[in-house]
Amino acid sequence: MLRIDHLTKRFGALKAVDDLSFSVRPGRVTGFLGPNGAGKTTTLRIALGLVQANAGSVTFDGQPYRRLVRPGRQVGASLEASSFHPGRSALDHLRDLAPVVGVPDRRCAQVLELVGLETVAGRRVGQYSLGMRGRLALAGALLGDPATLLLDEPTNGLDPEGIAWMRGLLRDLARQGRTVLISSHLLSEVQQSVDDVVIIAHGRLVQAIPLAQLAALDRPHTLVEPARPEPFKELARDLGWGLRETPEGFEVTGATAAELGHTCFIAGLELHQLASSRPALEATFLALTEGAPTQSDSTQSDSTHSESPQSDQSQSDQTQSDLRQVGP
User: Fold this and answer.
1) Which residues pair with 8 in a beta bridge?
2) CATH at 37
3) DSSP, residue by residue, 127-189
4) Rg of the Cα trace of the chain?
5) What sign for the dihedral angle of Cα 11, 52, 156, 89?
6) Residue 174: band (very low, low, confident or very high) from pLDDT cuts 50, 70, 90
7) Predicted model pTM
8) pLDDT > 70? residue 35
9) What is the domain range of residue 316?
């Protein structure tokens, strides 16, 4: 199990991660979600020992990453899909990583086949598409056959067929009993892949719940088009219904379609349209995170401070080389 406990990280005056706590269970795929700059990559880098937290801890089955006996065999990570030497082949890249992770050379060909790159293993990475580089980053994460996977934006650059393939692979990995955490700034990209969601904004936890319960956080509403809008609005105010005008009529909260239709019938109000509607999960996600300031919106830190705030993207630029330094 991956456990994050009261994690805090400051860059000068900016709190990139603010007292963050959640757990990721084995056998399930967990989506780590939040707007760009919410602190997702910072959290993952702290988990891997690449950034030092100001407070709190991250543990894998009770141990921090730096105390794992064979970290490359226990935790696999993919935080950046562009940190490859463009003149080297995918196979050569993995052969460099293999002794660091502690696996034999033959494992390189196995993971390339697993991610669908076996036919282009000898091609220079500089000729790869963004989606192919993402597959290669995943191959590196899987090299040690780890029990825990941390994947940052794993569907980035994949075409629809590749996204469907990724979903199936993540499900298979979770069914094998692995702990799988995938980050994204869009719920729509991962909602068909994950079992649980951890949503953060401005470094703080917003929700940590099963995906199936996420929709329940936002009340369903009823779409209605009354023949006479003004009497309908007066009735809604008297009954305490929530109203939002739309081009077609109103969105009503506080009454089901059946209740609304019956009430309007008794009141003698003619309706041209009446339908139930439930918010899309993406809309619920955006409602939970809207208004939270991102790093670019926050107060700039002291320019003389030895550390400076970085975006989730820029923080991951050196991840591949950093991971070599913290290997077994």
Assistant:
1) 55
2) 3.40.50.300
3) G--HHHHHHHHHHHHHTT--SEEEEESTTTT--HHHHHHHHHHHHHHHHTT-EEEEEES-HHH
4) 24
5) positive
6) very high
7) 0.75
8) yes
9) 2-215+290-325
* 211 and 225 belong to one structural domain: no
Q: How far is residue 163's CA from residue 131's CA, in Å, rounded to a whole number?
A: 10
Q: Is 252 helix (H, G, I), strand (E, B) or coil?
A: strand
Q: How far apart are CA 47 and CA 251, in angstroms?
A: 44
How many domains, the chain? 2
| Shared domain check, 129 and 244 | no
Residues, the chain, total? Answer: 328
User: Residue 320: exposed, middle, or buried by beta-carbon count in 10 A (0-12, 13-18, 19+)?
Assistant: buried
Q: Which residue has the tokens 């702990």?
A: 179
One-letter amino acid identity for 253?
Answer: T
Residues 6+ apart with CB under 8 A from 194: 29, 30, 31, 182, 211
Structure tokens given for 185: 């700034």
Burial class from Cβ neighbours inside 10 Å (0-12, 13-18, 19+) for residue 233 reads: middle
Least confident of 28-37, 44-53, 201-210, 273-282: 273-282
Are residue 308 and residue 186 in the same domain, yes or no?
A: yes
86 by DSSP, 3-state: which? coil
Q: Which of 106, 114, 119, 117 has its CA nearest to residue 149?
A: 114
End-to-end CA distance of the chain: 20
Helix (H), strand (E) at residue 100? helix 90-101
190: region left, alpha or beta (phi > 0 left; psi from -120 to 50 alpha): alpha
Q: Enter the tokens of residue 66.
A: 């730096």
